[in-house]
Amino acid sequence: MPEASPPPELPPARLPRRLRATVGALARAVCDPPDDVAPATYERLADDVERFLASLPAAARLGLVGALWAFEASAALVPSSRLRTYSRLSPRRAAAHFGRCWESRALHPLAKILKMVVAFAWFELPEVKAAMGYHPERWIAEASRRRLAAWATEVRRGEAAVLEPDPLRRPAAPAPTEVADALAGR
Amino acid sequence: MPSLAAEPIRTRADWPDAIPGATTRRRAFRGDVVELGCDVVVIGSGAGGAVVAAELAEGGLDVIVLEEGGHHRTEDFGADAGAAVRRLYRDGGAQMALGSPPITFAEGRCVGGSTVVNGGMSWRTPDKILERWRREDQVAGTGDMERYFERVERFISARHQDPWTVGRDNELLREGAERKGWAVIPNIRNQLHCAGTNNCAFGCPTGAKRSTLVSYVPRAQAFGARVLADCRVDRVLLEGKRAVGVAGRALGPDGRPGPRVVVRARGVVVAAGAVQTPALLLRSGVRSPSGAIGHGLTLHPNAKVTAIFDEPVEGWKGVHQAYQVREFQDEGYLMAAVNIPPSMLAMTLPHWGPALREVMAAYDRAVIAGILVEDTTTGRVRQVGGRPLVTYALSDLDLQRLVRGTSLLCELLFEAGARRIVLPFEGVADLHGPDEVRRLFARPIPREAMEVVTVHVMGTARMGEDRRRHVCDSFGKVHDADGLWVSDASLFPSPIGVNPMETIMALATRNAERLLEGWR
Lengths: 186, 520
What we know:
- The complex is a heterodimer.
- By secondary structure, chain A is an all-alpha fold.
- Chain A has eight helices and no strands.
- The longest helix of chain A has 26 residues, at 136-161.
- The two termini of chain B are 22 Å apart.
- In chain B, strands 1, 2, 3, 9, 10, 11, 12 and 22 form an eight-stranded mixed β-sheet that branches. A four-stranded antiparallel β-sheet of chain B has the order 16-17-14-20, with helices on one face. A three-stranded mixed β-sheet of chain B has the order 4-5-21, with no helix packed on it.
- Chain B is built from eleven helices and 22 strands.
- Helix content of chain B is 24%, strand content 22%.
- In chain B, α1 runs parallel beside α6 (216-222) and α5 (168-180) packs across α10 (396-415).
- Classes of the chains: A mainly alpha, B alpha+beta.
C-alpha cells in the first residue's frame, strides 16, 4: 500500500473582519512597512495569523483572540481617540497607542504578545522576505544540488547502513553488582 | 534479518481501517475503539522513543510506536518557517514555562520528535556529569557508556562538518573567540555530508541531518516495528502497579478527533519528552514513592544577541552552529552562532516600529548568537485539566550568569567586528562598542525585561537507585511499577551543560539492552 500524502494543515481559525483589520493595523505600527504596501498583503497577513491560531490549543487560541479584542477596544478608552477603536485610528495615532501600551507596566505583556504574533507573520510573507533580499529556498536548492553532486554514493551507502542488522551485545547480567557498587559509592 | 517490506508509517489517513493487526470495536453512541496488541508499546518517536523501539524490535520484540504528531517526510521540508512551526512543533512552538521571566520553550511534535527540529548537535555526556550522577544519585553503569555512545554515533553519523559548509556568521564567531584567546571547537553534528542549508529547526530539506525520522525510525520499521502517527496517548493503563498498555485517541482524516485507541502490551515505554512524560504519568495515576514525578525540571536557559556587522553575512547560507565557544564551560556557559529566519528574529527582538524596521533592514549583515547556561535551580511540571502546566523560577544566580554570559558574548562579537548589538533585555539600549558592554552591569536588569528561551527540557522523572528520591531506577524502569519505563531527558538527574540528544539516545540504547535482558 502506498504511503499517505503528508497530513494537511488544520483549517484556519477564522477571525471576524474587525479583528483582521486589527491585525493589519498592528502590523503597520509594529513593523513600520512602507506606505505603498498593497491591501492584499494585509489580507494575507491576517490569513497567516488565522493559520497560526489554528495550531494553538483551544485555551491559548481563545486567550489570543480575547487579547486582540481587548486591544482593539482599548483605543476607544483614550479620550483623544473620540471612541474609535484601534483599527479605525490613523496610522500615526495607532502607532502612538501601541507605544503607550508597550510602555505601560500593566499593558506591556498584552502588547508584547500581539507584537510577537504579528511580527512573526509579517516577516513570513513572501513579498516581505523578497523585499529584504531573503531567498533561502534558492540557497537550499543550490546547496542540496552540490551535496548530491559531490557525495551521492556515500550518502546512499550511509542511508542504507542504518538498516543493516547489528544486534546489541548482551553481556551476562551485571546488574546486581553494578547497582550494589553504585549504592556503595564505588 | 530486517524485513524487505517494512510496514509503512500509518497516519491519520489510515485510521482505523488500514492499521495492521488492529481490530475495531463498534460502539453505538461513543464512537469506535481500535484495539491492538504487542510486546512493548513506545510513546513518542524522538531521541528516546525511536532508539528504544529500534533496539527492542531488532532484539525480537513486537513493538508499536505511537506518535502524537504527523508524519512529514524530507521532501515536505523547506524554508517556510511559519508552516514548519505549525506542523512540526507542539502548540505552534508557543509553549511557555510560567515564571518571572516566562521562558519560551519548544518541543517537536511529529514523527522523529524534537530530533527533526533541533540543531543537530551530538555531544556525549560530559564525564563530570556522569560522575556526578554516579556519586550523587547512585546511577549504576555510568562508567560503561562508551559503547552506547559509539553505537548511537554510528547510526546517526555523528561527525564534524565538512569545512566548506560553514557560513560567514560562524566564521565571525570563531574569529572573535580566537582573537580573545578563548577556546572554540567545531561542533560534532549528526549529519551525513550536511549541505549547510541552515534549515535544521524546520526540518532538514536534504535528509543530511540524521534525525530519528531518517535513521532510527526506519531502522525500527526494518525490524518489524509498527509506527502509528497522529495518535495521542491519554493514559497508561494500569492493573494495580503493572502497566498493561495505553489508551488514547487517533486523529481522523480531517484532523478532528478520530477513533479511540487501546494498545495492550506487556511493556510500556514513555518517551514523550520531559514535559509530556511526567504529565502522562501523573494523569495515568502512576504513584512514585519519591513523590517526585514532574519535579526537578531543568532547562538550560538561553539568551540571544543580534550583532550587526558592516560586511555581508547572510547567516542563512551555511550550517547551523558550526562551532561552540567552550572557554567558559566550567562556569556553565556555552556560546554559538544560531541563525534564525527574519520572522523569528523580528518576533523576539525587543524593538518595534522604526527601530524594528532598522534592525530588520540589516538582517543580511547580522550574526545571531546565543548563550546557554547550565542552570542551578529547578522547576516543575504539573497536570492541570489534561494538559501539562510548566513553572520555572529562574534563580537570581542564573539571572546574573545570563547577564554575564551575554556580556562575554558581546565582547566576542565586538572583537569580531560588530558595529551594533541588540540585547535580549527590554529597556536596555543597543550597544555600539565594547566600551558600552559594562553598561550591562551599571544597574540590575529587571528579570521581567529578559527574553529567555530554551529547547532543552530535562529532569522530571529522574533516575537513580534511591526510590525515595528518584522516579526511575538507573535503567529507566519506574520504581514501584512493573512493565513501565521512561526513555527521554526526563531521566536526567541534573542538567548536563551540553546538547542533550546523544545522552538521551545512549541512555535509551543502554536501557533497551537491559529491558531485553530481563524480558521473559
